[in-house]
Amino acid sequence: MRNTLILLVFLCPLFCFSQGNSSQEKLTSFVNPFIGTGGHGHTYPGATMPFGMMQLSPDTRLDGWDGCSGYHYSDEYIYGFSHTHLSGTGVSDYGDVLLMPTNTVNFNNGADNKEGYKSHFSHENENASPGYYKVLLDESNIEVELTVSKRSGIHHYTFPENSKQIVILDLEHRDKVLSSQINIVSKTEISGHRHSEAWAKDQRLFYNLQFSRPYKKVEYYYPFGGQGDNPIKAAFEFDTSEGNELELKVAISAVDEAGAKKNLETEIGNKSFQQLKTEAETAWEKQLEKNSC
């Protein structure tokens, strides 16, 4: 028995080393982010970093116990892509700053089975890996790609040729909104905040959003039948003559809008979508290389 234990102690590090070097495939290629998104798993498939503050993921479910993460594999519609999600919890929260690319201006999300900005999707046209998510929205034929850093992320939208290019910003999505703000800094930059109540009674989040090209038109939706002081939703339209690809860089902060902008400038700056995606994959690869045995 003693000799057996000595042999195991000796062989264990050799086994770990050989396992880690026996294949040229990246460890991230063995990760399936969709595990746990069905049944009662309460996980989301979107892009995040190890211990990251941003969880950029699609939202397919707005309420209910199995909608705690915002996504359930049995669902057929995507309402949009928000930047904070909980994984594996029994209580819902977050779903901050929802963005949804579309072809028409409609501020209704479609949860009431009336016409809205939600879109049907198929798992056949959906893909996810550590730090990355991709899906095709069937109604609009828009391809969406997402990647992240620790406190920021990039949306990459590819619109069909000659279709309208509209992005809905919805701060009313999911949790009860206590306070919100949409500040137009320029035609390529928006900032603001969303304070909400669900599991956390006063969850505060600030955001900074930058478009890769200026919008040509904006429409607003005001709460309380148009009687509110601040818009809670906005629709930004972009010129189709400037190409069919659009990127949105978004950063968040729990402190203030200036902090969100600083996070964006520090973590993303002038980096391309592919650069940020590669950095996220590298970070996950290093995390997965850690061996407990």
Textual characterization of the structure:
The radius of gyration is 21 Å and the shape is globular. It has a single domain (2-289), classed as Beta-galactosidase, Chain A, domain 5, CATH 2.70.98. An eight-stranded antiparallel sheet has the order 7-8-9-10-17-14-13-12. Strands 5-11-16-15 form a four-stranded antiparallel sheet, with no helix packed on it. With 293 residues, the chain is α+β, with helices and mostly antiparallel strands. The protein has helices at residues 2-21, 223-226, 257-267, 273-289, and strands at 47-48, 55-59, 77-78, 80-82, 98-102, 119-120, 126-129, 132-137, 142-148, 152-158, 165-170, 176-186, 189-197, 203-211, 217-221, 233-238, 245-253. The longest helix has 20 residues, at 2-21.
Which architecture name does CATH use?
Answer: Distorted Sandwich
Oligomer kind: single chain
Order of helices and strands: HEEEEEEEEEEEEEEEHEEHH
Low-confidence stretches: 1-15
Number of helices: 4
Top-tier CATH class:
Mainly Beta
**CATH fold node name:** Beta-galactosidase, Chain A, domain 5
How helical, in percent, are the residues?
A: 10-25%
Strand order of the largest sheet: 7-8-9-10-17-14-13-12
N-to-C CA distance: 20 Å
Largest sheet: 8 strands, antiparallel
Count of the domains: 1
Count the beta strands. Answer: 17
The whole-number mean of residue pLDDT values reads 89
Structural class determined from secondary elements: alpha+beta
Estimated share of beta-strand residues: 25-35%
Q: Calculate Rg over CA atoms.
A: 21 Å
Principal-axis shape equals globular
